[in-house]
Design goal:
Chain lengths: 120, 120
DNA sequence: TGTTGTGTACCAATTGAATTAGTACAGTTA
DNA sequence: TAACTGTACTAATTCAATTGGTACACAACA
């Protein structure tokens, strides 16, 4: 379910955060689904539990998951949180557009690149 | 000519590198134009000369500038180097497209965002 | 010639973020 | 009670970025 990519340049914490957001966006997880426990996921990824807990804390802070002591962490049903994720994705993508343009790519170039990228 | 943005998340070195690439792409600098000296730019940016020199070394390594001991550093005329910059910009942008899609944005969404971004 | 400005090459030290390691506490479930 | 969950700390480590400093080689110029 979660697979780390050490070549991505992203920190472990970031990757865990983003992966659960993706799983929701892709429909592979739904609101209410339970996440692996902090310790279990840390063990599976061969990573320190603190790192996973930090990722879960970020997700909970953003309203994407909710955690209950003694029970576990669950994917939130709150659509507002997922709207916020979408907002951030748009902002990040817009920044990428600006960067690409500043390096000489035209609007047509960018549209072509978007369309060339297959939707999996 | 060069202005640092500490909120950008980019390192000083990265910002210097990217800024000169931009200046060339935007036509504000041409092949043969002299860059500020390592020490002068470092002083202007209130930054360590080593940091600027590292940026210049990266630019020279990529063929974007060439440096002559005792004379200075100059923007290269080599189009192949600038083609490589374009290649990298395309690769980076494609990665941004994938990320945005994984977070739930559709192809239409992305095209809209590209077109919404004014060309300055 | 000497001086100044240029790029280049080191090295030691510092800073900050990310991660690890370890311990402890609180709540749930069986 | 025992075994699981999340949470909250602190200390140590690692690594990249940056700083501070010194030194050398070359070019331009008075």
């Amino acid at each position: 379910m979660i697979q780390l990519d050490y070549k991505s340049g992203q920190s472990i914490c970031e990757q865990v955060v983003n992966r659960f957001i993706q799983l929701k966006a892709l429909g592979l997880m739904k609101g209410g689904d339970q996440l692996p426990s902090v310790r279990a996921l840390a063990s599976q990824l061969s990573v320190n539990p603190n790192t996973v807990q930090k990722a879960y804390a970020i997700l909970e802070n953003a309203g994407i998951i909710y955690s209950v002591k003694g029970k576990g962490s669950f994917l939130s049903d709150d659509e507002r949180a997922h709207d916020a994720v979408r907002q951030k994705a748009e902002t990040d993508f817009t920044a990428a557009v600006r960067t690409a343009k500043s390096l000489g790519l035209s609007q047509e170039d960018l549209v072509t690149l978007v369309l060339k990228e297959e939707t999996t």
